[in-house]
Amino acid sequence: LSLKRGDCEDRALLLASLFLASGIGAYNVRVCLGKMRLFFADADGSSKNEDVDHVWVMYKNEVGQWQVIEPACAQKHNIQETSARIPSQAEYIPYFMFNDTHLWQVRRDTTFNSKTIKLGRDWSRLNPKFAGQFHKTILNTALKGTTCPPWALSALNRHFTGFGTLTVDDVDWPGCYDPKDHFDNGYVSESWDLVRTRLAKFNEDSRANLNEFHKAAHSIADFYAHTSYAHFAQRDNSGALVIYDPSNPNGNLSHTPIYDASLAFDLSSNHFSRNENLWKKTPQAAANAWQGKLISGRYGQRKDSKGMIEMTAYIPSKMESAQDFYLRAALPHHNEIAVDGGSKPKEHSLYDAPAFQAQTKLRVDAAVKHIRHAFNSNVGTLK
Fold it and tell me: What is the pTM for the complete model shown?
């Protein structure tokens, strides 16, 4: 700003910083480092391309589509008076993306079949396995009858983007993945630590940190949907799940988590898969590794993806390089044990269809109660 000039990197960082300072959520902004592929049309009608290093900004607009914010200075050219070649088309090819929280690498070898990314196809099209409408319904049901004012509920609902009949929560957006946001890969205690931190920020300043409550609420719902808690939890007199108490992890369990045939959650058999790229031991060893602990399914592990969306879920390298990460390869896959609502997916292996539906109701009701309690206990004042 002082020099009145800069390259694409300088201007992209400035643009992204201005977006964040204006109040746009960090999950709606990306700075991308990669290549710009320029296509030039020759006089004979043929086309040639040239790759140049580039930095640009991606912004998720109000209709939920990612669009390029090009940082290059706009210049007017009289084409007849300049010898500069003017490209007929440009393609943006990201290698890394970051916001003020995360850095992601775009895996060229696994994420996309082609060498280049078509923005209209690959940034805007989204078909997640677990749509955000379920989270939106849980959140709105939980806050019904609380002191949450209409403006705050409206702000919370803006985290959900609609694509026709599909709704996506921005916590689930490709490239945003952190297992602790979703209680995935067996990070149960670590995820609760993150929930407590976010609720503490919400408690400190409810208006300024409303986004922290949204993330905490998403994680709480995922705890009941993704972990084995509901399988082993106590029931109250009405048959509902007793709400989990993170300060007393085993206090509301009717059974110690045992992963053998006796409690119908048998990791010692071949009923569930394992990430055999990392787990080289027996199924019984897998069961032994997680006995007595609440678990959740593995997700986003290298060379273990079950679909395009999971391929974009990059586990932070610090987690992957941990000495005990291989134990998480012994977990069943998320799709085999999670109860995310709707009808039973074909990959699900833990429950039959009637039990899956019953578990869905139990877990949704528990998530609603827990989120409502978290809001009432930490809201402070929202005017």
Answer: 0.69
